[in-house]
Write a structure and sequence with these properties.
mainly alpha; MetI-like fold; 11 helices; globular
Length: about 290
Amino acid sequence: MTDNSVKKNETVRKLKASLFLAFCLASVFIGLGVLLVLLADVLLRGLSSLDISFLTSFPSRFPERAGIKSAIYGSIWLMVLTALFSIPIGIGAAIYLEEYSKRNVLTSLIKTNISNLAGVPSIVYGILGLALFVRAFSFDRSLLSGSLTMALLVMPIIIVASSESIKAVPRSFREASLALGATRWQTTRRVVIPSSIAGMITGIILALSRAIGETAPLIMIGALTFIAFVPEGPLSPFTVLPIQIFNWVSRPQAGFHEKAAAAIIVLLAFVFTLNLIATIIRNLFEKPKY
């Protein structure tokens, strides 16, 4: 191969690399640009309606009186119950699959199905929740039905994230613990879980962040769009911020659209708070690497 051919090939490779880099940068800037435009539109529409009265008032048929008090309480109730149902079962399933189950075809099939369930559309979980919790178990259209449905939705995400975090723990850690006389449970409790807790918490918060913004499953199980009271327990009717936003956006009055934008700002604040808590907890549990 001549020097001219080598230089020509090198020039072509550099050109392709530059074009690919430009494409990647353009994709990033377009995505960020669209996101910033949407955020700016929401802020411009909603900040004028965001005040104490909006946060402490119940929904109303008049835009100037409408608030999100019942939706805030409903969202908090829903997230707490969803976490109580999904986190212990999700982490327990991940620990069993990675530390105790045999490596065979059945285990591989279970792991594959769990990974596939993490990508199932949320409306499918809503249909399942309607058939199972609302009708079969007669929990009616209550917070309990909603939280169990959302737990089913986020549990595969928690299991997958926790499994990957557990697999990232070096095998030598386990072997050293067992060599010192620890049982398998002691090794799991004192070595594996502390070493993987940061990744587990990250997966949990990402799962709950998805749950707090879901609307389709709650519409399927019949979450109400107009509630002028605060839920008193797991069997109470409820509404949540995404349902309230959906209701206001579907109305023709411009005042309700501004209220919906203000509710979106509150929902974003919830999500950012969850992610901030996840970052703080992860940093607390993450051991420094030397």
